[in-house]
Structures are given as C-alpha cells and as structure tokens.
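User: Design a sequence. Structure:
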C-alpha cells in the first residue's frame, strides 16, 4: 500500500506517520505552499536551518550564500574558521549532505546540527578566497586561491614568495642564484660609474654641483617616495601584483629595500626559512649595531695597521691626515646606511606594537576571539609580550634618538659655521684699505668653513636656512607609515592623518620652496602629489568595475617618478660631457 502525503504546508515529525492527524503545520521560516518532502517543509529564500524538522531562520549575514538552499555556505571573498569549541565542521558537512537527500531513506543520525556556526570575515584580498561551490569538507570550510593559505588566505604556501602581499611562484633554482648576482652587479656598475665621474670632476675645476651631489639629492627623493608608497601598496589589498604587474611590484619592493624578502627569497630555498615580523624585528634592530660595529672595527684595525707599519707615511702629520680622511669616509658610509635603512627599520619596530594586533571573533556571540599580528596573521599576539616591550625600547633608542641626534649635530655645526662666517666677514670689513683684489681674503667663499662631508649629503640640496628639512622629511615618512602599520586603511584615523600629512607637506613645499635646485623641487612636489593621490584612492570606496583601470593608473603614476629621475640623470651627465669637450 502506497504512503500518503500530508497536505501542503504540513509534515510528520521524524518523517513517518500513520494518520493525517499526525501532520503538523510547518514551522516559521518555511515555504508552506508546497509539499513538505520528508522534512518540515523547505525553507523560504534567504532562510536556512540546522534541523531537518525544525524552523528556518533568516540569513542575511554578509558573506553567506543562503539563496535557494537550506544551509549556510561562504560567498567568494569571505572566510570563516571552525576550530573553536562547539563548532564541528565534520558534523555540519554530514548534516548538509543528509539534508540534500530528498528521500525517506535519509540518515537519521544527522537530521540536525547541534553545534555553532562560525562568524564570517571578509578576506583582505577577495580574490584569495574563491570558495568554490560544493558540500565537501574542504568546500564548506572555504577554499584559498592557489598559492595562498592561512587566516583570511593571506599567507603564501610553500613554493611561493610574497611581492607586496601577493604570492608569486618561486622561480627555478638557477634563477634564484642568477637574479641576486645580477642585482648586485647592476648596483656595483652604477656605483662604479658614479665614482668614476666623481673622480674626473675632482681632477678639474668644479663649477656648481657635482654629479655625486645631484645623484644623492635625487636618490633621496626617489627612495623616500618608494619607501612610503611601498608601505601603502603592501596595505592596499586591492592591487594584485601578478602577471604583468609582477615586475613592477618587485621593482617597487627593491627600492623599498625589502632586499631579504624579494632578492634572496629564503623561503624558496627552504620553507623553514620564511621571514616573519619577529625575525624582521631582530634583523632590523641588530642592523644599526652591526653596521656601526663593522665600521668601527675596520677603522681601528686600519689605524692599528698604519701605526705599526708606517711605511707609506713619511711623518706623523701625514699619518694623522690619512687617518682623519679614513675616519670621515667611514662615518659617511655609516651615516648614509643608517639614513637609508631608517624607514624600513622603523616599520619592523612599529609592526610589533600591541596596537598592531587585530582581534577576530570566531563565533557569533563573540566569546571565542583571537588576536593576530596585522602584518602576519600566522603570529598570535598573546606570545609577543617580550617583543612588545622590546619595540618600545627600540623606539626610544632608535626611532626617536636617531633623528634627534642628527638634528642636534646639524644644528651644532651650522651654528659654528654661521658664527665663523660672521666673524670672517667682520674681519674683512676692518681690513686695511691698502689691500687689493689680488690679496687672498680669509672670507673668500671657497675658504669658509663648511659642514663635514659626512653631514653634507643631508642638507646639500636645501637652501642654507632650511638645513633641518631632511629631518622633517624623515618625520613625515615615519608618520605616514606608522598609522598604516598599526591600524591599516580600514581605520578612519589612518586615512585622516595620512591625508592631512600629505596636504600639509605639499603646502609647506609650495610655500617655502626649500630646495635649491628647481628640478629637485619639482620632483619632490610630484612625489608628494603622487603619495597624496595614492592616499585618496586608498581612502575611497572605488567600484569593482574600475579596479583594474585604477590599479594600472596608480602603478604607472608611481613608476613615473623613477623614470623622470633616470631621464634627468642621463640628460645631466650628457650635458656635463658636452661642456668638457
């Protein structure tokens, strides 16, 4: 005898009955206009259930796909985690598979899911979380794009390395050795050409700025620009640095001085050699000490060698003169290296602040939460107490002390020079009137006291009254990267302060025009404008339709800075050569 059906909108508890009196009205949230179908009626659209014979609940949560189905599933671009207590993804998958069984032979052991459903989080890069359809364990848990893994699919899998937070497949082993050698060779060639040109200028009579001064001045602008923009791009998760943009992303990372990550790529040799923020911090705070120690060791070893050999020097004065020149060169190299590495080292310090952690709650009731480091979601902030205190100490001893010491030393020398030059001018005015134009005056500009060569690069490109401006620029770079590192672009304070800083420095440069050279001033204004545009784009909610075009425009805008500088350099050197012929 065939089984009879209940009327539309009614069902029998547990799926079996012998009388129409056992048919119950389907619960709230169900479609009561059709047959029940061995359940408490199907759920309405955008409703889901956790019990085959229970009510359906409205499902409008962001990131969940609840359309035309009775269970919750992730939409592309979202992530959830099932590892907290009372969440059981295995049980939920069995329940979903059983729910899709339309017959009366469904599994009675999985008619309901008794656990909790995780809270949904938006992936930083939506493309990293495709979440392809299906009801397997992997599909329900959520899937990451090829090459990505971890929390919010933000980490690179083995065999991949990171370029501004985009995971790129590791190149062939041979290329891993050739590329670093090529980069080193290009840098060595560039330095050799600059030094050769500098020595040629020293042999002749130099009029105006040297090639070395011009290159250093413009490299400071370009380096400062890319160190700030590199930090912006690393936190702007809408740009996918793969395909045609990979080379541009790597170039920006080179100039940003993330050499260990991008050139050496230790994780491509061995997955255990991954560079994480904790290791970056140790390397960063050790680097100034290492540079200073190596330089001091070299100088004192050379001093000891020259004192005990004395073959090259006819007298004591010659020896002292040579040691003074050597000391000046060593201090110059140390100061330049510390100046160049200052912004990236500051970033490694800031990213281990307690405020640089982000809290994620796994469950709907926010009872089970985790704190992960914003720069690396694999790192649990609960284990960073020692690093937090160390970051505060490093801030006092390096982030604050370095620019303050530079400002103090610069001010001390500029005051001495001002006093000396004023005295020399006064002496010249009181000189006997019998002197003529052939008399060598102590106040001649070429003979006046100047800044030591190891401080010269800091203020050579600025007008005398703006001798302190490079320290102000250091403060700008640190300020613009600080909040991005600590809070990210989703925080309104970051957007407000970063935009305010960009506008302030654009206004200051337009008002005071602190640089001596017209091209340098225009290049700096262009770089500040480019930073301002980057910040505006990061602050705005750009429609997805324009994402590709906006990304390409941003990348081209940022590449133009180094193209302009390179073109001007070749034009400058060719002009110098024509004058010499």
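Assistant: Done.
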């Amino acid at each position: 005898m065939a089984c009879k059906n209940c009327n539309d909108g009614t069902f029998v508890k547990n799926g079996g009955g012998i009388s129409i009196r056992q048919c119950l009205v389907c619960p709230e949230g169900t479609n009561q206009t059709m047959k029940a179908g061995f359940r408490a009626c199907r759920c309405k659209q955008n409703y889901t259930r956790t019990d085959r014979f229970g009510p359906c609940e409205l499902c409008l949560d962001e990131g969940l796909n609840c359309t035309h189905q009775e269970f919750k599933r992730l939409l592309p671009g979202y992530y959830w985690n099932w590892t907290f207590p009372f969440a059981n993804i295995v049980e939920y998958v069995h329940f979903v598979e059983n729910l899709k069984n339309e017959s009366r032979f469904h599994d009675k052991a999985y008619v309901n899911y008794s656990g909790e459903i995780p809270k949904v989080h938006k992936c930083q890069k939506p493309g990293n979380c495709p979440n392809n359809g299906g009801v397997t364990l992997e599909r329900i848990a959520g899937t990451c794009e090829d090459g990505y893994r971890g929390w919010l699919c933000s980490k690179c899998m083995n065999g991949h390395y990171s370029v501004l937070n985009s995971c790129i497949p590791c190149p062939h082993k041979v290329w891993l050795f050739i590329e670093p050698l090529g980069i080193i060779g290009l840098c060595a060639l560039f330095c050799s050409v600059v030094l050769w040109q500098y020595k040629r200028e020293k042999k002749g009579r130099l009029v105006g700025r040297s090639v070395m001064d011009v290159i250093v001045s413009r490299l400071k602008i370009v380096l400062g620009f890319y160190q700030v923009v590199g930090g912006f791009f690393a936190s702007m998760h809408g740009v996918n640095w793969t395909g045609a943009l990979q080379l541009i992303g790597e170039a920006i990372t080179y100039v940003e001085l993330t050499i260990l990550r991008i050139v050496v790529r230790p994780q491509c040799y061995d997955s255990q050699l991954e560079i994480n923020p904790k290791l970056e911090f140790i390397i960063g705070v050790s680097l100034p000490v290492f540079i200073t120690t190596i330089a001091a060791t070299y100088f004192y070893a050379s001093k000891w060698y020259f004192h005990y050999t004395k073959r090259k020097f006819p007298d004591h004065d010659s020896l002292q003169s040579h040691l003074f020149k050597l000391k000046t060169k060593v201090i110059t190299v140390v100061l330049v290296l510390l100046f160049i590495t200052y912004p990236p080292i500051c970033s490694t310090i800031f990213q281990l602040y307690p405020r640089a952690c982000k809290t994620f709650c796994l469950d709907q009731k926010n009872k089970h939460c985790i704190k992960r480091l914003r720069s690396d979601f694999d790192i649990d902030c609960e284990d960073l107490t020692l690093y937090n205190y160390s970051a505060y100490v490093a801030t006092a001893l390096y982030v604050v002390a370095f620019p303050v010491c530079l400002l103090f030393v610069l001010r001390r020398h500029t005051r001495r020079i001002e006093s000396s030059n004023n005295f020399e001018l006064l002496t010249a005015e009181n000189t006997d009137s019998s002197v003529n134009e052939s008399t060598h005056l102590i106040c001649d500009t070429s003979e006046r006291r100047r800044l030591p060569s190891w401080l010269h690069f800091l203020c050579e490109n600025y007008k005398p009254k703006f001798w302190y401006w490079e320290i102000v620029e250091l403060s700008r770079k640190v300020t613009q990267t600080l909040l991005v590192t600590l809070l990210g672009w989703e925080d309104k304070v970051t957007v407000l302060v970063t935009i305010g800083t960009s506008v302030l420095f654009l206004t200051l440069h337009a008002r005071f025009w602190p640089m001596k050279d017209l091209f340098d001033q225009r290049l700096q204004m262009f770089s500040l404008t480019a930073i301002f545009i980057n910040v505006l784009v990061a602050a705005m909610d750009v429609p997805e339709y324009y994402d590709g075009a906006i990304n390409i425009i941003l990348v081209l805008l940022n590449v133009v800075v180094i193209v302009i500088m390179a073109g001007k350099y070749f034009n400058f050197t060719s002009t110098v050569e024509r004058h010499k012929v």
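The first strand starts at residue 10 and ends at 12. Confidence is low (pLDDT under 50) at residues 237-246, 431-449.
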